[in-house]
Specification:
This protein is α/β, with parallel strands linked by helices. It has helices spanning about 10-25, 50-55, 70-95, 105-115, 135-145, 155-160, 190-195, 220-230, 245-255, 270-280, 290, 325-335, 350-360, 365; strands at about 1-10, 30-35, 60-65, 95-100, 120-125, 145-150, 170, 205, 235-240, 260-265, 280-285, 300-305, 315-320. It contains 14 helices and 13 strands. It starts with a strand and ends in a 6-residue tail after the last helix.
């Protein structure tokens, strides 16, 4: 049986990968375990290690790291701590494959540890662009990876141009689209009243994360977004940001703005988040969920700033800077929903990834990487 270890550091990556992880665990030729780290152990971020435990998926190791103060230096030190903790866990377990998603520091730490232990790395969502610190981290993970499961053909071709072996790059689609149609979707009024919001108002979902290189402006941008949402008369459900540089200021601004029609939550379970995204009249912020998943419901998305600026776009996304929201938001609300259509996949990503993990040959040709240029 081929053993697969997945690294999970946030509510978001676990939610996106949960269908795929269960499919791996259920496959007769594969076994799965998880290294849990990062925000999963943070009370302020919902202590989401409990969601992994509730899912019944085996946890190979728990690697807590310091998340405060929320600065770039803390993020860098956490990567170092995770490399050490992951190395210990992987050296003891000796899995056949390490599976990673996206562009966060946890995933970079996993790629560094596994590549030095001659453990093949399979990377999901490589080859994408964003234009912030996420992009070079994502590409660094790709260069340390041996198998690539991309969301789109354009991402595959980007990896080829980066020198990756085309024979080891597979377009699987985005795992976050799997199971969206199966999620129970209460009606809009039920979701809103469940969060104490008035259904007579337009329903806005706000997810705004700080960007490392502009962390100093995060508080002001957040306040600008809040003012625009309130001026437009929306009933807003806001999720607290990730534990990155600048996040303390974003959290403070959101919590200070909370009132009867502006509600703040630390975390929503994946199905609850999907239901809210599907019901929202508009999604505002800079989350990848707005770029990738929201199009499957036709939810209008106002993407703010540089965090997602170079990703491939669905038709439901409009890009602006924070000061432009006040003028843009009424137009978006007047226009209404888009027809559901999504360039990121068809909702069958897990099947493809599981087949590739089970059937791809693992040999010296895979492990001994060289650039293709």
């Amino acid at each position: 049986m081929r053993s697969v270890v997945y690294v999970s550091g946030t509510r978001a990556d676990f939610g996106l990968m949960q269908r795929t992880l269960h499919a791996i665990a259920d496959h007769p030729a594969l076994s799965l375990s998880i290294i849990a780290t990062g925000m999963h152990f943070s009370t302020a971020h919902g202590e989401t290690i409990r969601e992994i435990e509730a899912a019944g998926l085996p946890i190979l190791a728990r690697v807590p790291v310091t998340l405060t103060p929320e600065t770039g230096a803390t993020m860098a030190r956490a990567i170092g701590a995770m490399v050490s903790g992951f190395t210990d866990a992987l050296e003891a377990a000796r899995p056949d494959i390490l599976l990673l998603l996206g562009d966060r520091g946890e995933m970079l730490a996993g790629a560094i540890a596994a590549s030095h232990l001659s453990i093949p790395v399979a990377h999901v969502h490589g080859g994408e662009r964003s234009g912030t610190i996420d992009e070079p981290v994502r590409h660094a993970i790709s260069k340390l990876s041996h198998l690539h499961f991309t969301a789109t053909e354009a991402s595959k071709q980007r990896l080829v141009r980066m020198g990756e072996d085309e024979a080891h790059i597979f377009v699987t689609g985005a795992p976050g689209l799997d199971g969206l149609s199966d999620v129970a979707r209460p009606d809009r009024a039920t979701i809103m009243t469940g969060h104490g919001l008035d259904p007579a108002h337009p329903f806005a979902l706000l997810m705004f994360h700080p960007v490392l290189h502009t962390a100093g402006s995060a508080a002001g941008e957040t306040e600008t977004l809040i003012a625009a949402l309130k001026a437009a008369g929306t009933a807003t459900l806001a999720l607290l940001p990730n534990a990155d540089a600048g996040s303390a200021a974003v959290r403070a601004a959101l919590l200070a703005a909370e009132d009867g029609n502006f509600r703040v939550v630390a975390h929503l379970p994946r199905d609850n988040f999907v239901a809210a995204m599907a019901a929202a009249d508009v999604m505002v912020g800079n989350s990848s969920a707005g770029i990738i998943e929201a199009a499957s419901f036709g939810t209008p998305v106002v993407n703010i700033g540089s965090r997602q600026r170079l990703r491939e776009r669905n038709a439901n996304v409009i890009d602006i800077e924070a000061p432009g929201l006040a003028a843009t938001l009424p137009e978006i609300l007047d226009r209404g929903r888009f027809s559901p259509s999504n360039i990121y996949g068809d909702g069958r990503t897990a099947d493809r990834i599981v087949r590739l993990l089970a059937e791809t040959s693992i040999d010296d040709d895979l492990l001994m990487k060289i650039n293709g240029y």
